[in-house]
Design goal:
Radius of gyration: 15 Å
Order of helices and strands: EEEEEEEEEEE
Helix content: under 10%
Strand order of the largest sheet: 1-2-3
Number of helices: 0
Structural class: mainly beta
Distance between the termini: 33 Å
Strand content: 35-45%
Length: 96
């Protein structure tokens, strides 16, 4: 496979069939059934890396976020929404 520049897209181009594949986004979730954990202010926007892992893009370093148990992601790694356990949208990609 040939990777397209990660600065423009997370898509990967397969030279065999010439189709663009966008990784499925994934979130890290807690094993604990609690609705809240450590809380702090983090400024940044949500993005997905080349493997589809959701992270917060900040002014300094990327931060992997751990979401509460039952949270999931809908969409692709270019445009996605984070859903809580009740399937309500709690965050969107690119939004600060």
């Amino acid at each position: 496979m040939v990777e397209i520049s990660p600065y423009r897209s997370n898509a990967v181009l397969s030279p065999v069939c010439q189709r663009v594949f966008v990784p499925t986004p994934r979130v890290v979730t807690s094993n604990e059934p609690q609705s809240s954990g450590m809380e702090a202010l983090l400024r940044g926007s949500l993005a997905a890396d080349e493997n589809g892992c959701i992270y917060a893009r900040t002014a300094t370093d990327p931060v992997i976020l751990v979401w509460p148990q039952g949270y999931s992601v809908k969409g692709d790694s270019e445009s996605f929404e984070i859903l809580n356990a009740s399937k309500a949208v709690v965050a969107r990609s690119g939004c600060p």
